[in-house]
Amino acid sequence: MYSATDPVKNMADYRAGRLHPSSSLSSIASVDRDRDLKPFSRAIHQANSPPYDPYPALRSMYRPDVTDDGDEDNKSLSLKKRRKKRGQITANLSGTRYDIIRQMVEHLGYTVTKEDDPSSFLIWNDAFVSTEKISELKPFQHINHFPGMGEVTRKDCLARNMTKIQKVLKEEYSFSPLTWVLPGDTTALINYAKDLKAKKKYRTFIVKPPNGSQGHGIGLYRNVEKIPPNEPYIVQEYIDKPLLIEGYKFDLRIYVLVTSCDPLRIFLYKDGLVRLSTEKYLPPQENNLNRLFMHLTNYSINKHNEFYEKGSTTETGSKRSIQFFNDYLRRNDYDVVLLWKNISDLIIKTMVVSMPHVLHAYRMCRPGATANSDSVCFEVLGFDVIIDRKLRPWLLEINRSPSFGTDEKIDFDIKSGVIEDALRLLNIKPTDKKRNLARQKAEAQKRLLRPSKRSEMSGDLSEAEKKRLSLEKRKEELKDLLSRIRKNAAREEFENKHSGGFRRIFPTADRHCQEMYTRLIMTSFQTFLSSRAASMQREIELVYNNKLREQQVLDMLAECQTDDEKCSQSYQSRDPKPLSSMPSIAPQPEYNEDDDDDFDEDDDDDDVAPQKPRRGQAHKYGLYPGSALSASRQTQQKATATRSRPNSAQRPLSGRPESRPLSQASRSRSVGRVSKPAPVIPNMEDPLAVLREEELAEKTLLALNDMRIKFPGKNDSEAEWILDKLHENWKFHKPRIASYWLVKLDSIKRRKVIDIVRSNVRAVIQKVWKLGDIDNLRLMRVINRVFNRLLWSHGQGLWNCFSPSGNSWETIFSKSSDTISATEMNCCRRIVQLCRDCLLIVYQFAAEAKTGASVQGGEVHQSGTSVQRKLLSGDGEGVGSNWNRNRAVGQRVAQLYHTRAESLGTS
Length: 907
Ligand code: ADP
Description:
By secondary structure, the protein is an alpha+beta fold. 49% of the residues lie in helices and 10% in strands.
């Protein structure tokens, strides 16, 4: 049986499915079955479905023990193991008196700490929390209060803030009854009453203590002169024509969850309480002003009335559900949708008033937190709203610690859902602790690598350097914006799936509304934080009204990249220091008229020996030292025809270049995203020019197909052999390469790897198109987007290309309004292939350089362990006879490149 005094027993029964938590059920038939089963269905759903993990693929890459192809048993076993290893979510509930919080926390599988453990994942306090406590929290922790929220939850603060904003936004904030804070506003109140009298209007005023609750100390007055003038009271105009249910006045307790203030995210719970008074309502008259059971709807007041009715269902008694209320309204032909639209609007606008205070206080408490960091604060607020006869909602007050008492079944039903769904939305995971540490480390590293302010300010910088720095800054901004857009999208996806009974009301999907609220936020900042309002304008616009989509930001980044390259070229021309820390890149060729026919398809120069490049080609198209065009035209043709290494079919790769470029592929073009005009390109309207461009693109594709990534000191077939071996033993190498590329290399080094391919591709294009400045070429812009995509999300872009669906990068074009030709697409595919090969070679080279290993005739020669042999063959298989190499050369090369490899993070 449900016991009002033993919630622990209730919860045990509830969870065991033995009993519904209601003692007052006279008959099981009277139970609202749907509602009663809901908590169970929630529990079952949770038990059967693994916790949401937005990045499973990424996680498995970091975890060599997690493979893609394990059977179900293994999976569940490793899941169990992992859970144990990851630990528990701990909750510190020492600051709450409500047992239902503990019950729901345990129901979710969290561990309630025995003492007041300040390092718990979740801290729940009924009382206000000091700013010191919030500032001491680690990023993985969550506490149930925001600093600064008192500005709307204390009656006097709410009154002052509402009065202030009503002066600027009268119409928008007309949902708040006129309020005066005594003694300061005494004169204003008296003047207002005089005005009313002059107009022969009579109003009633309700007087409340500034920080009271539960109806304590509340009184009604018709004559303001009777109100004690020097007491610190809140005086409010009384809503004297409320909507009634069965003749009784009522108010609504609405549950609102705020998960973050930077940016603001607000959720509204689908259910709540309707609290009825216990004496039939009459308009206020001198003779009924002191009848509190008629005018006040507080449970704490009305429960003392002998007519207070404990309902056996959510539809009877003095406390009912909002679901019942909605049905009641529908039955009586009220517009329920409009009412809830207005209530949501009231909630958002009230939170907009709180925002400057809360955001300011939060940022003071958490100075290092960026807009992208997860919020350590959340808050479940109880909005008290009264509805008048015209169905207009009025805000009475906001409770920052709404009562979670469960005297009645209806309390348990609704409040348990609020708490459980709120906690689910917070998405607390045992791994948060580790992940946050890693993020902090990465951010610290990023800060370290950023050029210091002092060096930026110093007058020693040349114009080119200054330009480069400002470009870097712009890129950082764009990257931040990009990560914000992505994080928001991921968050929204999570929220959409896990909101339970909550519905997100801000930010809203309605563009028009969002723009309107953004304007209100700006006005709110101007009103309450005028000194900082100007600096906040841009941020607010960017965060709440940002119309930029991911693709647009990527394009802007691509443009920055192009400018950056121009800069670095001019920078390099004065400074011989190579951009890449890997073996030096082939010099950029000057265009030479004589080379015109180098890629003429009819010029069948098949007899050129391997390694002996054609005139002028040697240093132009190879990647890596010597950068020789490694194969003869015959080899080139074969390579173009088969476009694969011996074992390529078995490789877990996709997006391989097409065997032969499509000729005369139809193309449509549009300026779309490539915004700048291309001065060096012939007129696009001219069909001949278009044809010529297509021809040049095909020649570029041929040249790209002929490119090979060279391994320092090894010939092409040796390099091919290395690639094949890595692919053959992909399962073994995958986690290592993932860890090398995604973790060990930082963004600068990752870029250097990509730059090895990029600079050589540029050289090829300059050569084929006979142009020095290729940045405005459409093809180059298209290609730059691919390079950027590969570096996207800390290298995730390139890493995705190794997955079975490795051509997902192609969506950068499918989403774009700009159509690209088949040849251009093939060029991009080839470049992706080259970048993948480049990463594998760099990885292998770095690994060899680190351990000093070299391979000769199937033997692994190294100063250390046999690991190197594994790195190369994975399964310990011997090396083929084609793998003959001069050991002395190998050692020399290893020495030569050791230092450079070190700078790529191998030591
Ligand atoms: P408390 O925090 O003490 O509960 P409230 O401001 O919520 O104080 O007021 C208590 C009750 O008084 C409300 O539940 C409502 O029924 C009634 N009340 C308060 N303000 C008004 C108002 N302006 N007009 C009509 N009724 C009001």
